[in-house]
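Fold it.
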Amino acid sequence: MTSSPSEGPKNSDLQKPADLKTFFTQYRFILIAAFLCIVVILLLPGRMKLHAFSGLLSGTLVGLVPFFVAKFYQQVRTGTLALVACMLGGCVSGLFLVLPLALTFLVIISLRANRQDHTPKNSGE
């Protein structure tokens, strides 16, 4: 039997979802940084908890921009480092540190992407 386009994709065409072990091994630094920030936030007195938590949240949201840009350019390590740095920077000083960190990592990612685009390809094709 031949398959027609209206039947949909076969099981071999579908990608397997990433299992939990792969998720934890790929993103362990992000999870460790989030855990450490939450522990530090719980130890802070009074209103400082609110400021540190809002900084962590804003750092995570801003850090996702260089993370996904780096993931697009296959630079997952740089993106993970950018997200962890933005999370920790947001927990410490809020957007005053997060925005320059995110912009710096975006510049680094774009420079590395441009350098990879200009590498000579194999001419034996």
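The longest helix spans residues 48-72.
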